Amino acid sequence: MKQVFQIFILTAVLTTACYQSGRAQKKAAYKDPTVAIELRIKDLLGRMTLEEKVGQLSVLLGWDMYSKNGNAVEASEQFKKALATQHTGMLWATLRADPWTKKTLLTGLTPVQAAKATNAIQKYAIENSRLNIPMLLAEECPHGHMAIGTTVFPTSIGQSSTWNPDLIREMAAVIAFEARLQGAHIGYGPVLDLAREPRWSRVEETYGEDPVLNSRMGEAMVKGFQGNNLKSGKNIVATLKHFTAYGVPEGGHNGGSVAVGKRELFQSYLPPFKAAVKAGAQSVMTAYNSIDGIPCSANHDLLTGILRDQWGFKGFVVSDLGSISGLVSNHHVAANATAGAAMAINAGLDADLSGYGYGPALIDAFRKGEVKADVLDTAVARVLRIKMKMGLFENPYVDVQKTKSVRNETHIALARKVASASLVLLKNKNNVLPLSHKLKKIAVIGPNADNIYNQLGDYTAPQDENAVVTVLEGIKASVGKGVEVSYAKGCAIRDTASNGINEAVELARNAEVAVVVLGGSSARDFKTEYLNTGAAQVKAAEVTLSDMESGEGFDRSTLDLMGRQMELLQKIVKTGTPVVLVLIKGRPLNLNWAADHVNAIVDAWYPGQEGGNAIADVLFGRYNPAGRLPISVPKSVGQLPVYYNLKKPANHSYVEVDDRPLYPFGYGLSYTTFEYSNLNVQVSGAQENLSVKVKLDVRNSGERDGDEVVQLYIVDKVSSVVTPVKQLKKFKRVFLKSGLQQSVEFELNAEDLKLYNQQMNWVLEPGDFTVTLGGSSEDVRLKRDFTVQ
């Protein structure tokens, strides 16, 4: 009887346990991957407190959220406190290293340590939060993951100079792979701002001045980052920056107000974002600026009306760092933090990058009735949806051993390939390039000839010196043992105190050719002070100047070469030695004197870690340059704006200078020549079914194999609203062997020819158009009119 009784008790216990387990499973539907995501989100929201919901919208600064002791890495006390008190659900820049974060090669994380850190953070968050919600980790990824030991590619302005979206998509996939292996889930990028104000400090982060080129590059980055499966373990979410019209601040002041009308906004500034959203982007970042008096971080028409209602965006919107607080402190449209938080979330801004824009302020706004429950739940749901799409509830950790694949030989080779494709040959008088292999004495001169960090651009982590190839090193590796390569810095980028000009001039005088490497720098240093947004605090006068004259916060009033660079160049040219000028920089600079007096000019922008090899490949003819300018180079600041697709009527000349840029959009030379012929334009269909097929032949008529970038521009001859004097619509980078010819085809559709009419609608108006084809916005090889019925 006792045994029977024990069996009865055991059965009762098991029955109760199974019942309770069933209830637990029913309550934890959000943890069940077999349940539809929307049902999982609904289930989880129903369990969350107000504080937990607000915590999911707080993106805290991540680099203090781990502690490192030798090779051991664990969640820091600061993270533990943040989780306990703020219920935070997201971190930003956990793996970032630079002077602002004060993380160096010693205090920062190797890829192996990075994976350990993100795993430790995830483990602590899941095991020590009531609902076991994993963290979402965002990182800076514009031209490589901004972390120690990753591959550094050319900055965005160089990427767009390739005019090769397929190559940029391949690059983006590598960046995503390296970031995801270390535990990141979101990559900040691409930056889709139109750079029509070269004085602005962040030109290097953009794809230039044109909406079509920006759109194609943005699509490529999104597809490369996100792939087809966010659960793949090698893809990350793309965050589009900065929404919107951030790149044309008045006076070039970073974050300043912009003067953009609604039609111009729709026709020029919004299309790159729309294209990237249609390509599947899952995240968007708001811009610091205001448009027509409304800050972007509190603009309901922008964040809800356009982004979601018109474009169907399903992802989440995140503020730029501190921009919600900026509604109070900068724009002065909110009286206090509570009002600012309510304005932002009610406009459609979901997540707060900083942790202090929402937090207690959003809780206060909710309790006061200024934010409704459905608004808060919608924002939280958008964040949770990404976590579930990435499979983080089921697989929050990464394999530490796989981080050995970060920055491998294949990735380095790709960095060289992208850098080579980005180089723009601006001048080549008497074919001084490529350099002869018979040269015996080469002088390499200039502040950017042998400077690792000046070559890499902003948003770059500290580097092992052996990982970066400078121009001097690239040239030395390219020549034979019998060639003497001498080097002198000559001067600094900005500082005029030191003077090595005489030494440099003597080297040039005694050389057969002088390769002079000048330009600018976005290299941050540990002496510079930074704002709480990460932008540099610029001081007009310092005893010792850093080289930094570009990069976030470093706006310019002129575009002249700084310091004593022009003096150095002029004295070297005066020696009579042939001069090749290589420019490493982040924005267009004044090149008027160089264009008149220097034999050859190569624009490299910031070419990344393999820049030295890529530049040497072009200088010695192993690579035929085919980069094209994604931004016009002005003759004077007084010409600005000078972008090619300005509105009609066309500009006229000034008293001092004509209206044309020194080098136009789309411009770039080659070591070979190309001929265009046999243009054929066929129009069929109407309105939404319109098709304009453009076909032409391109022939390599020179003696070297090379790439041509065929560019198609449209002119709307008569329209109901003012349209650009010309507008790029299609382009294709084509490789042709010497003497060979290839047919190139483009197809224009209704979307390519529409305008935003007086009634603020996108329409295709019947009428006459002109199509032009050539090698730049001003190089018209073929031209044909056609009519849309």
From TrEMBL:
- Gene Ontology molecular functions: beta-glucosidase activity
Look up keyword Hydrolase and say if it applies. Answer: yes
Source organism, top-level taxon: Bacteria
What Pfam families does this protein's entry cite?
Fn3-like (PF14310), Glyco_hydro_3 (PF00933), Glyco_hydro_3_C (PF01915)
Q: Which InterPro entries match?
A: Cellulose_Degrad_GH3 (IPR051915), Fn3-like (IPR026891), GH (IPR017853), Glyco_hydro_3_AS (IPR019800), Glyco_hydro_3_C (IPR002772), Glyco_hydro_3_C_sf (IPR036881), Glyco_hydro_3_N (IPR001764), Glyco_hydro_3_N_sf (IPR036962)
Give the record's family classification: Belongs to the glycosyl hydrolase 3 family.
Name the record gives this protein: Beta-glucosidase
Source organism phylogeny:
Bacteria, Pseudomonadati, Bacteroidota, Sphingobacteriia, Sphingobacteriales
